[in-house]
Protein: Ribosomal protein L11 methyltransferase
Amino acid sequence: MKWHEVSISTKEENEEQLSIFLNTISKGVSVEHSVDILKSKIDNFDDKFRLDPTDYPESDIRILVYFDETQNIDSKLNDIKQFVKETPLKSKDNIEISAKLIDEVDWENEWKKYFHNFKVGKNFFIVPSWEYDDADIADSDKVIKIDPGMAFGTGDHATTSLCLTLLEDVIKADDKVIDVGTGSGILSIGAYLLGARSIKATDIDELSLQVSKENFVLNGCDDEISVMPADLLKDETEHYDVIVANILAHIIDDMIDDAYELLNENGRFIASGIIVEKQDEITAHMKECGFAIKEVLEEDGWVAILAEKVS
Ligand SMILES: C[S@@+](CC[C@H](N)C(=O)[O-])C[C@H]1O[C@@H](n2cnc3c(N)ncnc32)[C@H](O)[C@@H]1O
Structure:
């Protein structure tokens, strides 16, 4: 088996915007930082990833994106180039994109050695499933056991951790929740641990649906979370107390009207995956629909918006 490896050299400030997009179109993404960048982030990275600076490029960053050999690499390259062209990236300087075919290595599991326990929000403790027995877990921790496999959602990405933080603020016992674009299922598990029940987790990606089901079993909440394929809220008919979606801004924009319709009175919509530059556009659309903006959290150039349905 061979893989297409697409290499994107760019400035560090583009990492988050590019990574979230590339994760949605590929089989895997890894980011290599230059030594200097790594040094400046060592405190951030060390506990979760224990990186070795000698593995990294000498300047800026290199994002490696993987597609299996059956995928149409020319069309994927076009998608990437179009995204780079049309997105207001933080830096448009010196972006170089190239592709090559490489032999299979066990990179699907390689990243696991860099992924370790960490805390998110006030009380969440994310534990890779393969480290659970060794984890030093406090009684107060709400433990999310996770094996994201090839789905998005380890919890270390700002957009995911911001959603978990907002869920801590809004979920009340027995709230009915829908998690749109569940990925690894991490936000549904978080909602369950906070007391939500009758949770629905949806995604358009088959692999994410499979991975999320496995994670629900792992966390003993598969009875409370139904998993189904869906394109945003287009065919949804049930009503919810909380809707959470961590996708990209233009996709969130497509679901704002449906979210308003499907929320119960005073229901809350948590939306993330939104770059700071798109915040005003999204909040304006939310307000037009009747939402009140209750809180906006920001980290690493990403925002998560908490909106409430008011009549
Ligand atoms: C950034 S990941 C978020 C995963 C997880 N919820 C988290 O917060 O870490 C976005 C997810 O949305 C899914 N997605 C993208 N477009 C979608 C759509 N139109 N309808 C449903 N899910 C979608 C992707 O397959 C992916 O699993």
